[in-house]
Design brief:
Elements (H helix, E strand, L loop, with lengths): L5 E9 L2 E8 L6 E2 L2 E2 L6 E2 L3 E3 L2 E7 L10 E2 H7 L2 E5 L24 E6 L5 E3 L3 E5 L4 E3 L3 E3 L6 E7 L12 E2 L21 E2 L2 H10 L2 H17 L18 H6 L1 H24 L5 E8 L2 E8 L2 H21 L9 H9 L3 E9 L3 E8 L2 E8 L7 E8 L1
Parallel strand pairs: 8-11
Antiparallel strand pairs: 1-2, 2-20, 3-4, 5-7, 6-7, 7-18, 9-10, 10-15, 11-14, 12-13, 12-16, 12-17, 13-15, 18-19, 19-23, 20-21, 21-22, 22-23
């Protein structure tokens, strides 16, 4: 076993906790901060293909108990989670704390979230909340503790043409669940939309509002001109809206995405049940023969909760990607998941709650959210994107 290369280049104190930037070479199977690297030991299975979209199921050597974690969809539907514009914090405070935020101080890249649930809340980068003055996409994975005071969220706008409040608070989008696709374990007919990988990646990796806006416009334009099957020969998207969520809610766009998503969603949902004993926890995703993404969770339960909107985000990417390619192989998927050989690593930690790790490697970026809550200490979610 080779020793890890580690050279610290900066240490910065941040409001959320300690932010650490360093350099490290991470090797699959090596010790990682004194623990076995959580991204080693996964097994990639034979793919499920439909059209230009391919997903490779991922099974894990171990599954963790994630039942205490609340998802954003569950929290918004129950009313236990409140999301509002930065500046609307008064009246939401649980404890007697003097707020630094003032009313009417809305900002494009800031939202406030309160978790009134007795369960910790899991937020995933790429989840879109609709409402307020603009729809926003969450910029990074994080955990919000149970019964929290207002938390300042780092977000990016995905609706560049509006700055007028449609509602005081944020809710769910019907685009998440089209007809024929299940609503996950929470039931119901709505949930937050998951941005497709190209948009999600801009928020997670570039962390730049202009880059996110540019990608949203690009994908909206692609949705307006995409070719669909004879069953839906043309799209009739409205150019009058700049809302990414509303474009995705268009019935013709839904139909185009459904055609790709439904077979994958159903086949993998069935496969998850078959593979429950083998601990199916994620997927590696390819579009037109190119590996583009992977999402891996700490448990089959978490994967099942996020699967309906994840598969639609992958399908949306496949619908608008016109480049033709071959078929991604099992060996390519295995190599993509196994390669965590990074030359730079950034860690942000909120002590006792979570650690967020970003790994920059050759041709990829990876993001790991580790729970630091009592009786946890494991990675809740690991996402990896090809560059």
């Amino acid at each position: 076993m080779r020793p890890r290369l580690f050279v610290a280049v900066a240490v910065v104190m941040a409001v959320a906790g300690m932010v650490f930037v360093g350099r490290r070479t991470v090797h699959a199977g090596m010790s990682f901060n004194g623990e076995q690297a959580s991204f080693s030991g996964y097994k990639v299975l034979e793919p499920i293909r439909h059209g230009s979209l391919t997903v490779f199921p991922v099974v894990a050597p171990k599954s963790y108990d994630t039942g205490e974690f609340l998802t954003l969809d569950e929290g918004l539907r129950s009313g236990d989670v409140v999301v509002t514009e930065y500046g609307n914090v008064r009246g939401l405070l649980r404890r007697h704390v003097t707020p630094a935020m003032q009313h009417d101080g809305a900002e494009v890249n800031r939202l406030v979230l309160v978790n009134n649930s007795k369960r910790p809340l899991l937020l995933l980068a790429g989840e879109i909340v609709a409402g307020g003055k603009q729809d926003r996409v969450i910029g990074k994975d994080r955990i919000v503790p149970a019964e929290s005071d207002p938390v300042d969220l780092s977000v990016f706008c995905v609706e560049p043409g509006r700055w007028v409040a449609s509602s005081d608070r944020f809710g769910t989008s019907s685009a998440t669940y089209a007809s024929g696709i299940g609503a996950g374990s929470g039931g119901g007919s709505g949930g937050t939309l998951m941005a497709q990988p190209s948009v999600r990646g801009k928020a997670m990796a570039d962390k730049d509002q202009n880059q996110v806006w540019a990608e949203v416009r690009k994908q909206e334009q692609a949705m307006e001109t995409v070719e669909v099957t004879a069953a839906a020969p043309s799209l009739n998207t409205s150019t009058s809206t700049t809302s990414y969520a509303r474009v995705m809610e268009n019935k013709d766009v839904k139909q185009a995405v459904d055609e790709v998503a439904k077979p994958i969603e159903r086949n993998y949902k069935s496969l998850i049940k078959q593979l429950r004993d083998r601990k199916a926890v994620g997927v590696v995703v390819a579009v037109n023969g190119r590996i583009i993404w992977s999402d891996v969770f700490a448990s089959t339960e978490l994967l099942e909760k996020y699967w309906p909107k994840l598969v639609r985000s992958y399908a949306s990417e496949a619908v608008i990607t016109r480049a033709k390619g071959g078929e991604a192989s099992l060996a390519q998927a295995e190599a993509f998941l196994a390669d965590m050989d990074g030359h730079r690593e950034t860690i942000e930690s909120e002590p006792g709650i979570y650690r967020h790790t970003e790994i920059n490697g050759d041709g990829f970026k990876a993001f790991a959210l580790t729970s630091l809550l009592p009786k946890t200490g494991f990675d809740l979610h690991v996402a990896k994107m090809a560059e």
